[in-house]
């Protein structure tokens, strides 16, 4: 029986192995201060370094610029924070708040900002004179200004808010800046922050310009040696430009031996070269598209699910997972914030009985606690959702790509990608929220039969998935009180359990006008997001091949698609008018369909 096999899968195949994760050396042997090593042990519970820490820490301690590539959940955060703290605590004259900012960590999302800040706080416990701080979208600007005026030694920031303060907070002192770190470098660029980053580097005098047009830039304090670091589990050609303008003669950490040899020739710093020459030199030396590093113990599966049955199948899988193991955490990724809101309301309220539809016998379909997290939520709700989900033992998180990067949530056992991520990089980061640091984990990707070529796209990045036999999972649910009511169901769309559940879902939506409204809104933004896939991926995610009636069904909507379609078209026209007026860039436009405030 597959239900059993699935659960066995995690136990037998998913043997978390620590052999590949930890290095056989100590933190002190890497050159870190002994007090700091004790902090790592006492406050964070880190006894020995991970492989990437063992490789990166000595390089970063040496002062070289670096590009660090290692699988998700392998400890990249401490790999860059520890060397910075080591240097700062060792300054002969203790640094003071009035010295301003020495290190700047740029991250793509607010949650990651808070997460890095929390780790830093722990690391600095014994070094009270080094002040950690963060600035990010959604927070009170005046309070941030006040904190910056007092002085923050190590500052974690999201790009937009940082740029805002660099331009408008005159008391923000950064003349002592020594480190700039781009955590999840590729994501920062993908979100359309490329121009902001260039401006930030200019304002900080850290941009490696070839034609030294220093207008509007702060002259770099010549006494301070700058060190910039780029990190991600998926460094690809998108990072080349950022590396080109921000790294000087970088060391590559975590790339395979061949690539390191290829790259080891120092990259020239000769400012007499032309921009183009330098770009060519970089492109031949920087990593290009290749295999992404996915935790080896992660079990990756996909499910072939026709569009019209997606919703009952999702609910069934979730029920199955929580019945299989009541104490666990599961994360489901959706393509839009509206889809998160709709599914959150639905799953929080939907009651069901497979015996009879009499009110009294119905109970909540899912018994677990449910949370949501996306970029359009108000900051306070975002923070509460994230922090509470983190501490829960058993819970479900419905989320957008805002949670895909860097978030370290303990005991997440399964990642479901209900909407395909599109970019293979995002696939890798989404699944990377489980199977962290050698732990067990599994992932499930929903694909419609017409999207099945996406598996080949993932294959080109070295990511292989096996099929999850969804029918057998569905067969295990009792209907009308009988367990083995069906033996030969071949098609998902005619499976009695699926039909019964779909009918109940549609009736539920009809009885709840507010959820019905959310469903229609989610339908519209889902179609928009589907249409916004990058050019090359459009051959896989073809909007023309979508049956809008089936899409509507996947939001439990009974209405004819034309009805919903009309309101969608109205919204589309409105959106286009708005974009024409405001002149949104194409890059931002695509991101905006999915998330407005990462
Ligand atoms: N040396 C260590 N010993 C034990 N645990 C560690 C060690 N280093 C890191 N960890 C833990 O491993 C987990 C993953 O670390 P971290 O979030 O830094 O990974 P990452 O490589 O940045 O992941 P991602 O690519 O997803 O951002 C965290 O829970 C962290 O506390």
Automatic annotation (TrEMBL):
<keyword id="KW-0347">Helicase</keyword>
<dbReference type="InterPro" id="IPR025313">
    <property type="entry name" value="SPB4-like_CTE"/>
</dbReference>
<dbReference type="GO" id="GO:0003723">
    <property type="term" value="F:RNA binding"/>
</dbReference>
<dbReference type="GO" id="GO:0003724">
    <property type="term" value="F:RNA helicase activity"/>
</dbReference>
<dbReference type="InterPro" id="IPR001650">
    <property type="entry name" value="Helicase_C-like"/>
</dbReference>
<keyword id="KW-0378">Hydrolase</keyword>
<dbReference type="GO" id="GO:0016887">
    <property type="term" value="F:ATP hydrolysis activity"/>
</dbReference>
<dbReference type="Pfam" id="PF13959">
    <property type="entry name" value="CTE_SPB4"/>
</dbReference>
<dbReference type="Pfam" id="PF00271">
    <property type="entry name" value="Helicase_C"/>
</dbReference>
<feature type="domain" description="DEAD-box RNA helicase Q">
    <location>
        <begin position="25"/>
        <end position="54"/>
    </location>
</feature>
<comment type="function">
    <text>RNA helicase.</text>
</comment>
<protein>
    <recommendedName>
        <fullName>ATP-dependent RNA helicase</fullName>
        <ecNumber>3.6.4.13</ecNumber>
    </recommendedName>
</protein>
<feature type="region of interest" description="Disordered">
    <location>
        <begin position="566"/>
        <end position="598"/>
    </location>
</feature>
<feature type="domain" description="Helicase C-terminal">
    <location>
        <begin position="313"/>
        <end position="485"/>
    </location>
</feature>
<comment type="similarity">
    <text>Belongs to the DEAD box helicase family. DDX31/DBP7 subfamily.</text>
</comment>
<dbReference type="Pfam" id="PF00270">
    <property type="entry name" value="DEAD"/>
</dbReference>
<feature type="short sequence motif" description="Q motif">
    <location>
        <begin position="25"/>
        <end position="54"/>
    </location>
</feature>
<dbReference type="GO" id="GO:0005524">
    <property type="term" value="F:ATP binding"/>
</dbReference>
<feature type="region of interest" description="Disordered">
    <location>
        <begin position="265"/>
        <end position="286"/>
    </location>
</feature>
<keyword id="KW-0067">ATP-binding</keyword>
<dbReference type="InterPro" id="IPR011545">
    <property type="entry name" value="DEAD/DEAH_box_helicase_dom"/>
</dbReference>
<dbReference type="InterPro" id="IPR027417">
    <property type="entry name" value="P-loop_NTPase"/>
</dbReference>
<keyword id="KW-0694">RNA-binding</keyword>
<dbReference type="InterPro" id="IPR014014">
    <property type="entry name" value="RNA_helicase_DEAD_Q_motif"/>
</dbReference>
<feature type="compositionally biased region" description="Basic residues">
    <location>
        <begin position="572"/>
        <end position="591"/>
    </location>
</feature>
<dbReference type="InterPro" id="IPR014001">
    <property type="entry name" value="Helicase_ATP-bd"/>
</dbReference>
<keyword id="KW-0547">Nucleotide-binding</keyword>
<feature type="domain" description="Helicase ATP-binding">
    <location>
        <begin position="57"/>
        <end position="253"/>
    </location>
</feature>
<dbReference type="GO" id="GO:0005634">
    <property type="term" value="C:nucleus"/>
</dbReference>
<dbReference type="InterPro" id="IPR000629">
    <property type="entry name" value="RNA-helicase_DEAD-box_CS"/>
</dbReference>
């Amino acid at each position: 029986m597959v239900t059993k096999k699935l659960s066995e899968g995690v136990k037998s195949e998913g043997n978390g192995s620590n052999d590949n994760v930890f290095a056989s050396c100590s933190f002190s042997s890497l050159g870190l201060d002994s007090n700091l090593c004790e902090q790592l042990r006492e406050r964070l519970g880190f006894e020995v370094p991970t492989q990437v820490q063992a490789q990166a820490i000595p390089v970063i301690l040496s002062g070289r610029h670096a590009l660090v590539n290692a699988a998700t959940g392998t400890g990249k955060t401490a790999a860059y924070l520890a060397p910075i703290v080591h240097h700062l605590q060792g300054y002969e004259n203790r640094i003071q708040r009035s010295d301003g900012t020495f290190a700047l960590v740029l991250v793509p999302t607010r949650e990651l900002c808070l997460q890095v800040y929390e780790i830093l706080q722990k690391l600095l416990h014994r070094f009270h004179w080094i002040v950690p701080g963060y600035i990010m979208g959604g927070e009170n600007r005046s309070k941030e200004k006040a904190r910056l005026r007092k002085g923050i030694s190590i500052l974690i920031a999201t790009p937009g808010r940082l740029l805002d303060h660099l331009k408008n907070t005159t008391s923000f002192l950064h003349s002592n800046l020594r480190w700039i770190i781009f955590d999840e470098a590729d994501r920062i660029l993908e979100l359309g922050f490329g121009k902001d980053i260039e401006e930030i580097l200019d304002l900080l005098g850290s941009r490696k310009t070839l034609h030294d047009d220093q207008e509007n830039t702060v002259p770099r304090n010549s006494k301070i040696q700058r060190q910039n670091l780029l990190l991600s589990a998926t460094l690809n050609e998108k990072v080349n430009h950022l590396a080109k303008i921000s790294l000087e003669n970088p060391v590559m950490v975590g790339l395979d031996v061949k690539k390191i040899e290829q790259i080891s020739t120092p990259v020239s710093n000769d400012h007499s070269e032309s921009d183009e020459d330098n770009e060519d030199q970089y492109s031949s030396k920087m990593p290009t598209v290749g295999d992404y590093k996915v935790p080896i113990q992660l079990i990756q599966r996909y499910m072939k699910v026709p569009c019209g049955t997606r919703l009952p199948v999702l609910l069934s899988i979730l029920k199955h997972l929580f019945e299989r193991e009541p104490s666990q955490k599961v994360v489901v990724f959706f393509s839009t914030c509206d889809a998160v809101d709709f599914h959150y309301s639905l799953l929080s309220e939907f009651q069901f009985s497979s015996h009879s539809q009499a009110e009294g016998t119905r109970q909540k379909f899912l018994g677990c606690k449910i949370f949501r997290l996306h970029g359009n939520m108000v900051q306070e709700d975002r923070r509460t959702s994230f922090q509470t989900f983190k501490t829960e033992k058993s819970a479900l998180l419905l989320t957008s790509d805002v949670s895909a990067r860097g978030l370290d949530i303990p005991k997440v056992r399964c990642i479901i990608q209900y909407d395909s991520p599109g970019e293979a990089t995002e696939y890798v980061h989404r699944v990377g929220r489980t199977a962290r640091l050698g732990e067990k984990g599994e992932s499930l990707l929903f694909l419609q039969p017409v999207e099945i070529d996406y598996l080949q796209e993932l294959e080109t990045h070295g990511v292989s998935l096996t099929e999850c036999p969804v029918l057998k999972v569905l067969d295990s649910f009792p209907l009308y009180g009988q367990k083995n009511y069906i033996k030969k169901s071949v098609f998902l769309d005619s499976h009695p359990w699926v039909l019964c559940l779909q009918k109940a879902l549609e009736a539920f939506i009809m009885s709840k006008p507010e959820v019905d409204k959310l469903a229609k809104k989610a339908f519209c933004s889902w179609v928009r997001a589907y249409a916004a896939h990058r050019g090359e991926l459009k051959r896989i995610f073809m909007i023309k091949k979508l049956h809008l009636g089936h899409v509507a069904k996947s939001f439990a909507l009974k209405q004819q698609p034309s009805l919903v379609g009309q309101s969608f078209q109205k919204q589309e026209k409105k959106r286009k008018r708005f974009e024409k007026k405001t002149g949104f860039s194409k890059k931002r436009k695509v991101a905006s369909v999915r998330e407005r405030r990462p």
